[in-house]
């Protein structure tokens, strides 16, 4: 399995690039966002890759991050989603947008991808919503100044936020995972901590429900 390529980009197409690795040119198919983010011909480039094997075809698909690659693999596992649809979804929303849409069950956002109809979009969010938290947390280190337990006061909690009630260790772990996932999506630590604390106060106690509830609070009015 070819999991990553690093070399010199020697060709750019409309939906693919060629990367020279030790004198061998690998054709890698990419989505629009990835193509736009890659450097020009002749420059160094690296992509995480997933190999699609068919009876008469081998295709490499490339991604900028492990999170994007993992979403591609999960999307491909949903009935009715092939490589073309997966790349269209990631190209339209980006990995962060896919994470938000699936965590919130937002099938309408998924439908903005070309060629994805309402039934497929709904099936996708239904089947993958429980897997979203783990993917969102991939590659995220510990949240800076994140509370070790909800009862401990911490600088990332806004001064006007009431201290959260004490919680069992399992709930504290879920909140830490939710904070990590939100930080990986780019939310400010203080905003993420406040949203997770409020979600926990409303009864959310597992990682998936905490992330969904926190995202709803963080969404623009």
Automatic annotation (TrEMBL):
Its main location: cytoplasm. One of its GO terms (cellular component) is Holliday junction resolvase complex. The keyword DNA-binding applies. Keywords: ATP-binding, Cytoplasm, DNA damage, DNA recombination, DNA repair, DNA-binding, Helicase, Hydrolase, Nucleotide-binding. GO terms for biological process: DNA recombination; DNA repair. It is found in: Cytoplasm. Residues 1-64 are annotated as: Domain I. Pfam families: HHH_5, RuvA_C, RuvA_N. InterPro entries: DNA_helicase_Holl-junc_RuvA_I (IPR013849), Hlx-hairpin-Hlx_DNA-bd_motif (IPR003583), NA-bd_OB-fold (IPR012340), RuvA (IPR000085), RuvA_2-like (IPR010994), RuvA_C (IPR011114), RuvA_C_sf (IPR036267). SUPFAM superfamilies: DNA helicase RuvA subunit, C-terminal domain (SSF46929), Nucleic acid-binding proteins (SSF50249), RuvA domain 2-like (SSF47781). Residues 73-92, 108-127 form the Helix-hairpin-helix DNA-binding motif class domain. Residues 172-221 are annotated as: Domain III. Residues 146-173 are annotated as: Disordered. GO terms for molecular function: ATP binding; four-way junction DNA binding; four-way junction helicase activity. Residues 146-159 have a biased composition (Low complexity). Belongs to the RuvA family. The RuvA-RuvB-RuvC complex processes Holliday junction (HJ) DNA during genetic recombination and DNA repair, while the RuvA-RuvB complex plays an important role in the rescue of blocked DNA replication forks via replication fork reversal (RFR). RuvA specifically binds to HJ cruciform DNA, conferring on it an open structure. The RuvB hexamer acts as an ATP-dependent pump, pulling dsDNA into and through the RuvAB complex. HJ branch migration allows RuvC to scan DNA until it finds its consensus sequence, where it cleaves and resolves the cruciform DNA. Has three domains with a flexible linker between the domains II and III and assumes an 'L' shape. Domain III is highly mobile and contacts RuvB. Homotetramer. Forms an RuvA(8)-RuvB(12)-Holliday junction (HJ) complex. HJ DNA is sandwiched between 2 RuvA tetramers; dsDNA enters through RuvA and exits via RuvB. An RuvB hexamer assembles on each DNA strand where it exits the tetramer. Each RuvB hexamer is contacted by two RuvA subunits (via domain III) on 2 adjacent RuvB subunits; this complex drives branch migration. In the full resolvosome a probable DNA-RuvA(4)-RuvB(12)-RuvC(2) complex forms which resolves the HJ. This is Holliday junction branch migration complex subunit RuvA.
């Amino acid at each position: 399995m070819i999991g990553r390529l690093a070399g010199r980009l020697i060709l750019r197409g409309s939906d693919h690039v060629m990367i020279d690795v030790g004198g061998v040119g690998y054709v890698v198919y990419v989505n629009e966002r990835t193509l736009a983010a890659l450097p020009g011909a002749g420059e160094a480039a690296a992509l995480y890759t997933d190999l699609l094997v068919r009876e008469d075809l081998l295709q490499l698909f490339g991604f900028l991050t492990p999170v994007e690659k993992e979403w591609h693999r999960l999307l491909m596992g949903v009935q009715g989603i092939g490589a073309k649809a997966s790349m269209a979804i990631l190209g339209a929303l980006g990995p962060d947008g896919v994470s938000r849409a699936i965590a919130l069950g937002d099938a309408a956002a998924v439908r903005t991808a070309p060629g994805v109809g309402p039934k497929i979009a709904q099936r996708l969010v239904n089947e993958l919503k429980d897997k979203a938290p783990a993917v969102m947390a991939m590659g995220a280190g510990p949240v800076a100044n994140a509370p070790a337990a909800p009862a401990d006061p911490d600088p990332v909690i806004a001064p006007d936020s009431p201290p959260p009630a004490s919680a069992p260790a399992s709930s504290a772990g879920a909140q830490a995972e939710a904070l990590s996932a939100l930080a990986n999506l780019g939310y400010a630590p203080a905003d993420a901590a406040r949203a997770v604390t409020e979600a926990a106060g409303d009864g959310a106690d597992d990682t998936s429900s905490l992330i969904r509830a926190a995202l709803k609070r963080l969404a623009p009015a």
